[in-house]
Inverse folding.
């Protein structure tokens, strides 16, 4: 009997937590790791933009106008002669911010709401979901116009407005999941053990439902970013002179025949970011899938 | 099979498309059917209800006013009236209607039709926003504004079935131009009254099957958001001079889509074209782009009741810091005529008052003199515009000019149209974009800016200006004197600078070479009678240009 | 089951009523009236117009009058298009949007489910990566980017397909349907793959395989239900998503559908049109949610008993 053996046994008994397991699994998924790296890169660039952007954001050169990529302007210029790389960097700040914050709002509201509805069931559930139906059927555009008018046009409002629309689907999905999970034995066991509902929801239902929630969250962020783009174009979201990837894409799509780079580069930026988010989301789902971790 | 059915079949076949690969344009050329891209879905075909240009384009095919207009020279031509005479002092004009003039159901067109129609157009209950076209008639303005509810007080006299005498509100040499506008078109009383009250805006009388009009064409079929098909009116008095057999109006909101449809041979002509596509079309070996100036003015309004815009030097400074030339040549691709005058450039027989254009040093001097040297201490203000690519481009460029030359950080914001109008109504803005289109007559631009003008949203109130417009001009019947007075009024206006003129509009649209009769003119008007199609011509082909 | 359905139907009525009420009052609060225009409407004329459209009555009276009309199926006159009733407008736009939505949905379900299922059968191989990457593209590309690109490629460069219209030229329904359905197809692909994977990892699947059942039976009979469940749950919101997506697609391809009418009405402050379309669409959404829940309950018997015992 040597000291090594005892140490091994001790280490073996230490065990690993759920999240450590997940991290190990995630690391093995190369696409997810790549997605994570790209995402982190995008976020860092977005945060540092005011210091590292090659040109001033509003530096126009009207005589130059729209020009294809060149040594001076790596990604070309827009119709005002503004450097596209700079535009895309600043646009990214806004797009990412809207994406994350609005989704976070939707997530918090939606998950709580759906979990409660699905868990409690019965009349309360019926009422809560009817409320969701009502809100769903509201004319979204009017709702947003109204909000913009009453509270003035600002980004915070935009986040809230988008979040207020996106949480509905989150709630429905969560509720569906909770309903299905509630039938499972381990939940019934927890109930019979006398655990309070909030604990059950928090400790058992949410983690087990997390797979679809994460998948749906990573699907929501791009949805939110696209929603913001559409709103901005109509004049309800991000306003010029501020910009976002969505806004840049809208402008680019109009002139895509004459100046394709105005569309391609913002499109690439958005697409790559969304790809990363999705690969990462997939990886997380696989990594966190409790039921999938047999043995 | 009668003409009607065969026409509908022809047009529908054109829409459905035939597998031989013949385009709408080619078939249309053969069969005399024009395919026209007409912007938004027409709100109404009732000439006393409509106001937008898609509606006008449709209505000028369906109705004919008392006078017509040549699209090449803009000269006044016989319409329903075959001739007309002014009296001695030009306070009244007598119209002699063409006895051949008929409605599309065969009924004869009489002077009484005009009296009834014009009264309907002016009736306040009608809600006609273009009733001012008829204000040349004595008593019309009072009647329309409810000051005198008696319709018989209008200066309209039916002498006999084909003779109408009109008393003018003041000796106005340009009165006749107003009477060529489609808003003054006659309408068929029996048809209207068969479908509701005469002042009902919501009535079925313009639907295909019910419709009766007096124009060169009449409604054949109308599918919302898909097409309006009109066919030649067999009872039209000048039908022998109408070359087209029918027109298909396609409502197309996006200019990009419209351009693609033109390129693929689905349209003979478009309503507009995006600025960014213009350079390419200018270089096409076979020309398809029609360009030309027209009487429209693009400007920014100052809210002169709000500081710091209540200060004249500040307004002047802002105006002098705008480089209109560069703006027109770069962002607007040469599709605008830079102008620091409010009345459009090219107004015939009119001499613009001289104005300073672009002078950044003077601008800076004025701004400093107003208390904001180098832009310091300048309050936050916002420039607003309605959501449209063109307006955004101009705003972004000008915002930067104000920054570069005056070191001012002025915000810009866009609003969608309905909200925008509300904002303007409530004078809740600092600087706002506006455009005003009109005709070869400065009054269209200047009359509305009197202190009591209903569309005067500038807060501009100048007694001298009012005097010129309301008194002096109306007191003289001499066209030359009136023009000089209008120039004087513009000078007064620009001295006070409640607005910032930027450019004069131009027409820009695509037209198939196989089509003739749609020239660019100063009033931006279309006269469908003049359109001819070459039956053997192929559709225009796009030539790829090397970069 | 019938109790479940009828219970939900009854619950739908107050929902729709609430929608009407909330929309009615919301619309009135938003700025901009239907008669604003550049050539400002003089007060007298505006008053006459308001009278004609009942806008001069107190709000509550307008509301009750509207409900009365609604009960008779009359959505009222359109403000923006005098001479047209909202019924007419909805009647003109609805069949078009329904057809577009149907094709898009069929495309999405077919292509989406198939891709998802195929991908789940061989996870982390090319059979998985290829469909999932395509699905990713479908999600990441906005409709207003995909549409114009497809038009540019197939309509302008290759000249295979028409660039706009609906029912005008043979083949013009293809591009819009694919554009609208692609985003949904991507979602469905991912959802069905995720659902499939969860089901395939279940014990009873192991058992079925151990029993020696052929793979197609394992997948077809047992796994499919579980895989489709998340998709079915998603159909309710998918329908709503299709509707809002239809606006962009209908604009790009110039399709005269209800989606386009609807947003135009919002910008035009066409009150009656907004109200009418909202009532219509909310009724449809509620109905679709019901169908979605019924299907979910049918597929998952445990949910059915829960509802049956509680209703």
């Amino acid at each position: 009997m040597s000291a090594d053996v005892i140490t091994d046994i001790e280490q073996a008994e230490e065990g690993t937590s759920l999240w450590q397991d997940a991290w190990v699994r995630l690391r093995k998924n190369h696409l997810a790791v790549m997605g994570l790296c790209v995402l982190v890169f995008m976020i860092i660039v977005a945060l540092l933009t005011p210091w590292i952007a090659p040109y001033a954001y509003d530096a126009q050169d009207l005589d130059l106008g729209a020009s294809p990529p060149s040594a001076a302007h790596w990604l070309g210029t827009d119709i005002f002669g503004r450097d596209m790389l700079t535009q895309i960097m600043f646009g990214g700040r806004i797009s990412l911010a809207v994406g994350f914050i609005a989704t976070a709002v939707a997530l918090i509201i939606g998950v709580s709401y759906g979990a409660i509805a699905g868990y409690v069931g019965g009349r309360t559930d019926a009422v809560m979901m009817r409320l969701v139906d009502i809100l769903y059927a509201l004319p979204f555009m009017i709702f947003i116009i109204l909000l913009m008018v009453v509270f003035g046009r600002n980004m915070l409002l935009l986040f809230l407005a988008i979040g207020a629309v996106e949480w509905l689907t989150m709630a429905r999905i969560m509720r569906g999941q909770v309903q299905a999970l509630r039938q499972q034995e381990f939940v019934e066991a927890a109930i019979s053990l006398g655990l309070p509902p909030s604990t059950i929801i928090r400790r058992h239902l949410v983690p087990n439902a997390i797979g679809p929630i994460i998948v749906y969250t990573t699907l929501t962020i791009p949805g939110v970013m696209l929603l913001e783009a559409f709103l901005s174009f109509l004049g309800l979201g991000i306003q010029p002179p501020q910009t976002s990837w969505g806004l840049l894409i809208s402008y680019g799509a109009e002139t895509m025949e004459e100046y394709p780079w105005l569309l391609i580069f913002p499109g690439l930026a958005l697409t790559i970011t969304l790809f990363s988010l999705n690969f990462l989301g997939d990886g997380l789902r696989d990594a966190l899938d409790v039921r999938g971790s047999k043995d | 099979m009668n003409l009607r059915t065969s026409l509908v079949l022809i047009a529908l076949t054109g829409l459905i498309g035939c597998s031989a690969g013949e385009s709408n344009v080619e078939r249309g050329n053969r069969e005399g059917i024009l395919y026209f891209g007409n912007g938004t879905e027409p709100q109404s075909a009732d000439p006393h209800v409509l106001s937008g240009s898609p509606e006008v384009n449709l209505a000028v095919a369906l109705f004919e006013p008392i006078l017509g207009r040549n699209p090449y020279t803009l000269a006044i031509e016989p319409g329903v009236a075959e001739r007309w005479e002014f009296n001695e002092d030009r306070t009244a004009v007598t119209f002699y209607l063409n006895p051949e003039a008929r409605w599309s159901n065969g009924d004869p067109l009489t002077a009484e039709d005009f009296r009834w129609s014009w009264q309907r157009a002016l009736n306040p209950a009608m809600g006609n926003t273009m009733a001012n076209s008829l204000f040349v008639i004595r008593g019309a303005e009072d009647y329309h504004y409810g000051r005198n509810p008696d319709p018989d007080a209008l200066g309209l006299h039916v002498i006999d079935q084909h003779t109408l005498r009109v008393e003018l509100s003041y000796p106005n040499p340009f009165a006749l131009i107003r009477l060529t506008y489609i808003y003054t078109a006659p309408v068929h009383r029996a048809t209207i009254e068969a479908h509701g009250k005469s002042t009902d805006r919501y009535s079925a009388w313009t639907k295909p099957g019910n419709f009766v009009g007096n124009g060169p064409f009449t409604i054949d079929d109308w599918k919302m958001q898909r097409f309006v098909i009109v066919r030649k009116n067999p009872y039209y008095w000048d039908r022998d001079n109408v070359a087209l057999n029918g027109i298909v109006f396609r409502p197309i909101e996006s200019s990009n889509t419209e351009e693609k449809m033109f390129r693929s041979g689905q349209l003979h002509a478009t309503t507009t074209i995006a600025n960014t596509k213009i350079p390419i079309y200018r270089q096409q070996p076979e020309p398809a782009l029609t360009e030309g100036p027209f009487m429209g003015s693009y400007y920014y309004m100052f809210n002169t009741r709000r500081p710091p815009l209540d200060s004249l030097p500040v307004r002047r400074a802002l105006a002098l810091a705008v480089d209109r030339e560069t703006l027109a040549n770069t962002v607007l691709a040469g599709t605008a005529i830079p102008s620091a005058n409010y009345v459009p450039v090219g107004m015939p027989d009119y001499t613009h008052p001289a104005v300073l254009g672009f002078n950044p040093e003077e601008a800076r001097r004025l701004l400093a003199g107003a208390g904001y040297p180098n832009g310091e201490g300048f309050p936050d203000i916002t420039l607003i515009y309605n959501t449209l690519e063109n307006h955004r481009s101009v705003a972004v460029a000008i915002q930067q000019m104000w920054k570069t030359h005056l070191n001012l950080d002025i915000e810009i914001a866009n609003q969608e149209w309905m909200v925008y109008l509300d904002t303007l109504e409530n004078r809740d803005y600092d600087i706002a974009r506006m455009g005003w289109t009109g005709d070869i007559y400065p009054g269209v631009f200047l009359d509305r800016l009197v202190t009591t003008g209903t569309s005067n949203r500038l807060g501009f109130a100048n007694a001298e200006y009012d005097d010129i417009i309301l008194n002096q001009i109306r007191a003289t019947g001499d066209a030359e004197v009136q023009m000089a007075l209008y120039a004087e009024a513009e000078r007064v206006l620009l001295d006070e600078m409640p607005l910032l003129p930027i450019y004069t509009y131009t027409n820009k649209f695509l037209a198939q070479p196989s089509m003739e009769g749609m020239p660019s003119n100063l009033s931006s008007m279309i006269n469908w009678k003049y359109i001819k199609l070459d039956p053997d011509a192929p559709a225009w082909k796009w030539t790829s240009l090397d970069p | 089951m019938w109790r479940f359905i009828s219970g939900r139907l009854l619950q739908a009525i107050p929902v729709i009523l609430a929608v009407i009420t909330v929309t009615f009052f919301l619309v009135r609060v938003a700025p901009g009236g239907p008669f604003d225009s550049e050539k400002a409407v003089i007060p007298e004329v505006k008053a006459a117009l308001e009278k004609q459209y009942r806008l001069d009555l107190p709000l509550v009276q307008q509301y009750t009058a509207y409900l009365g009309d609604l009960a008779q199926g009359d959505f009222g006159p359109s403000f923006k298009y005098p001479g047209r009733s909202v019924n007419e407008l909805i009647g003109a736009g609805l069949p078009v949007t329904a057809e577009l939505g149907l094709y898009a949905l069929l495309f999405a379900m077919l292509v989406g489910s198939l891709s998802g299922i195929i991908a789940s059968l061989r996870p982390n191989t090319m059979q998985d990566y290829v469909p999932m990457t395509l699905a990713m593209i479908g999600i990441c590309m906005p409709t207003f980017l995909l549409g114009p690109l497809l038009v540019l490629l197939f309509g302008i460069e290759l000249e295979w397909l028409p660039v706009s219209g609906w029912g005008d030229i043979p083949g013009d329904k293809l591009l819009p349907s694919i554009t609208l359905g692609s985003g949904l197809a991507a979602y469905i692909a991912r959802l069905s793959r995720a659902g499939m994977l969860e089901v395939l990892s279940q014990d009873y699947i192991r058992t079925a395989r151990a029993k020696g059942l052929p793979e197609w039976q394992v997948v077809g009979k047992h796994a499919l239900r579980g895989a489709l469940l998340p998709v079915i749950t998603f159909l309710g919101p998918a329908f709503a998503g299709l509707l809002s997506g239809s606006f962009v697609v209908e604009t790009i391809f110039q399709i005269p559908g209800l989606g386009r009418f609807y947003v135009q009405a919002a910008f035009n402050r066409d009150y009656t049109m907004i109200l009418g379309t909202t009532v219509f669409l909310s009724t449809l959404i509620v109905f679709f949610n019901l169908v979605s829940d019924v299907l979910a309950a049918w597929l998952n018997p445990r949910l059915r008993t829960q509802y049956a015992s509680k209703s």
In short: Chain C touches chain B through 51 residues (CB under 8 Å). The first helix of chain C runs from residue 2 to 29.
